Amino acid sequence: METYLHYFILFLGLISISKSVLSFSIWVWGSFFRPSKNLKEYGSWALITGSTDGIGKALAFELANKGLNLILVGRNPSKLEETANAIHERYRGKMFIKTVVIDFAKCPPEEIVKKIEETVDGVDVGILINNAGLAYPYARFMHEVDLELMMCLMKVNMEGLTWVTKSIIPRMLEKKKGAIVNIGSGSSATVSSYPLYSIYAATKAYVQMLSKSLSVEYKQQGIDVQCQIPLLVATKMTYIKKSSLFVPSAETYSKASIRWIGYGEICVPYWPHAIQGFIIRALPEKLLDHLLFKYFNGMRKRGLHKETKLAKMK
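That's the Very-long-chain 3-oxoacyl-coa reductase 1 sequence above. Prediction below.
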């Protein structure tokens, strides 16, 4: 009896090791060797929200480099024009670019839907990238988040993404193909909690679950829905100016992001981020919660001090 038990335990161990080896092999293949898809097969146009800064702007340039026409969505008309001109200048006007001014924090749902539907009417939109996002200026407890900021977080991070997606899906269903990429966050996918940024992390958890569910709904209809998980990227939103291996520039991250479009429902495109995530998840949950709270509380105190100092100067 003990011999059979011994073999059974050994068998379970081999299965566990085999699964780990297989998962690691798939990750290596996807991160370093798998060719990216021909994105033009989805359609000749790509729509990007939050396209005038950070990851969204870098993705717009990468998609233009792949030969796609662009629909750039943002809230600032002058920055939209500046971005469109920069793309035209780099690629010598080889693509068409449309711009749409939408402030997700202020526009009512029906106006968002109307603007998007009017813009994509008669246009072969194959790729939608929901990148527009908003975060806290600095860490704070939930009761310290003012109502205006709270509403803006939910409107931009959840509602705007939802209404744009709802506007685009019928077009993709008509031709039975398309790719939707929603930019999530390590705050909801990598760590056990995200204290002092609770509402932001919760909005990104919504993005992740929506993406997973829509993928199941529309996969058989030829639509690839994906949530990409970045950790820290050197952008204006993160207030990080200097890039490094584990904190890439938006341009470096966007190259990895493009390679993963169409592969997987939830993914971490930038391989150093995936390694970071593996290490983070290996830590005891209570320890991780404690470290995050301590770190973000320090950020909160510095933020409050800076805010108080600026108020006195005024």
